[in-house]
Amino acid sequence: MNSSLKSQKKTVVVTGASRGLGLAICTQLLQENYIVVAISRSLSEDLSRLCEEHKQSIAHIPYDLADLDGIHALCKSITEVHGRPYGLVNNAAAGLDGVLATMHNSEISTLLDINVQAPILLSKYLSRSMMLNRTGRIVNISSIIASTGFNGLSVYAATKAALEGFTRSLSREVGKAGITVNCVAPGYMQTEMTLSLQGERLESVKRRSPLGILASPADAASAVSYLMSERAKSMTGTIITVDAGSTA
Ligand code: NAP
Predict the structure, then answer these.
(1) What's the pLDDT at 6?
(2) Ligand 1, pocket-test mutation among 13, 14, 19, 155, most atoms within 8 A of CB
(3) Ligand 1 neighbours (beta carbon < 6 A)
(4) Rounded to two decimals, what is the model's pTM?
(5) Of 6, 21, 129, 154, whose CB neighbour count within 10 A is largest?
(6) Which residues are the active-site residues?
């Protein structure tokens, strides 16, 4: 990565960058001239293509966020190699579903580790850099399921509600250092996470929208890029819902 570019541009760390919403977020942030540090376990074909097209501005770090003990070292190496980041998008999540009574405890732990603990630890270590910069942006990807009910998603819903509570209180804690903390809560989007929802169930989700459509990953990514921007300097501690009106 070219060092003169590095000095002029703002760096944003995006988790879950290999596909779906994370890939859409990386794509938009690159179009808006950010440097992107993209984290996921795998380097998908789409992310690999994006890295090829924007060689100067994106770096992929393979990392399994279930390894909570390694997150401190991960953040340290990001700062050493790419400088102090301006932004963090906590987008990676596990989307395990299941009836609580029969769910394995290991699945419950996985959901809590990846969807709650990893974003908290990344925010902890990277907000230190933002504090030194006296500016920063943290965007946590929640879901409309944090505030509405859905059969089979009780643990996933608990993780997203936890992220929203975390967002509100952290915004109070770091605001004086010029750091904003917000959530984007998408409605149903067609990604790998939701592959199993098809046919009539999919049509009924669309019918819930006054617009008769589903929000796309690009729609939710636009809310993230707005929160990253200077135009959102007075937005903190809040949740932007992008669900084509389905919860209206
Ligand atoms: P997705 O298609 O399943 O993508 C998930 C991303 O997270 C992938 O890049 C995956 O990369 C990464 N990831 C998963 N586990 C990881 C781990 N242990 N370590 C590192 N990276 C990991 O999901 P999506 O639909 O884009 O969801 C993105 C965000 O939107 C999530 O927070 C989700 O809860 C939220 N959301 C989605 C919907 C929806 O309808 N799809 C609705 C509301 C909210 P690797 O597999 O390569 O690691």
Answers:
(1) 52
(2) 19
(3) 15-22, 40-42, 63-66, 91-95, 114, 141, 143, 186, 188-189, 191-194
(4) 0.97
(5) 21
(6) 156
Question: From ligand 1's centre to the CA of 109, what distance in Å?
Answer: 16
Q: Which atom of ligand 1 is nearest to the CA of 17?
A: 9
What is the Cα–Cα distance from 18 to 24, expressed in whole angstroms?
Answer: 9
Taking only Cα atoms into account, the Rg of the chain, rounded to an integer number of angstroms, comes to 17
Q: How far is the CA of 2 from the centre of ligand 1 (A)?
A: 30
DSSP string, 151-190: TT-HHHHHHHHHHHHHHHHHHHHHGGGTEEEEEEEE----
- Most ligand 1 atoms within 8 A of CB, residue of 41, 65, 138, 148 to mutate: 41
Express each pLDDT in 111-146 by its tens digit: 999 999 999 999 999 999 999 999 999 999 999 999
The amino acid that residue 41 corresponds to is R
